[in-house]
Amino acid sequence: MPLRSATFDLDGTLVDSIPDLAAACHAMLAELGQPPRTDGDVHRFVGKGMAVLVERCLTWDAAPEASLLEAGIASFRRHYADINGRASTVYPGVVEGLEAFRALGLPLGVVTNKPAAFTSPLLERMGLAGYFEVVIAGDTLAFKKPRPEPLLHACALLATEPGLNLHVGDSLNDIESARAAGCPVICVPYGYNEGRPVDSADCDALVSDLVAAARWAAGA
Ligand SMILES: O=C(O)COP(=O)(O)O
């Protein structure tokens, strides 16, 4: 059966947001007088939403105290609101790929673990907002990827069945969420997978970029 819609992960799939996420982490840690992290650490820590990113930055021998974590989240929010989109870039092939998906007549959505307060501003600043009919952020629902709910909600809003919605992501969070929701899922290899290379065995296909993803969708 031909596909009826497609959804996309944001960080690591559409946009390389590590420079801004890392800058906000550096500013937060400095403000709280905590040991610094490298950009490489932040690259490994991104994936399960903002609170987990901050918690991982603050975890050395043990998890941070609740009050420190709370202060870290508040500080990160303030800094990232300022920085979000400044040094982030759209990956090569994304605009051409989204145009190709659109040419297939598929309505498109974003399903990200990024909080809503940062998702729409980033899509706007990157010039991508107009491609998407539906945006499900990390705090739109009570559950994030790898739970299936965000993708199921996107499918309902896109008026499609999960089995006919292709999800395109960069990580095991995307793959597990799609598998649990019953969506076909393909991955790009250039994003963030919490420090591991994404494995072609786990998804329906590993494609070099979104142009190749649209070619795969056309043949599905
Ligand atoms: O905010 C995160 O942790 C990751 O966001 P993503 O789901 O767009 O990769």
Observed structural traits:
220 residues; alpha/beta; DNA polymerase, domain 1; 6-stranded parallel sheet; elongated; binds 2-phosphoglycolic acid
Describe this structure in words.
This protein is of the alpha/beta class. The chain has two domains: 5-16 and 88-219, Rossmann fold (3-Layer(aba) Sandwich); 18-83, DNA polymerase, domain 1, CATH 1.10.150. It is built from nine helices and eight strands. It has helices at residues 18-31, 39-45, 50-58, 66-83, 94-103, 116-125, 149-157, 172-181, 210-219; strands at residues 5-8, 15-16, 89-90, 108-111, 134-136, 165-169, 185-187, 205-206. The chain has a six-stranded parallel beta sheet, sandwiched between helices. The protein has a two-stranded antiparallel sheet with strand order 2-3. Helix 8 (172-181) links the parallel strand 6 (165-169) and strand 7 (185-187). Helix 1 crosses helix 4 (66-83). The longest helix is centred in the middle third of the chain and has 18 residues, at 66-83. The model has no long low-confidence stretch (mean pLDDT 97). Bound molecules: 2-phosphoglycolic acid (PGA). Residues 9-12, 46-49, 53, 112-114, 138, 145 line the site of 2-phosphoglycolic acid. Pfam families: HAD_2. The active site is at 9 (nucleophile).
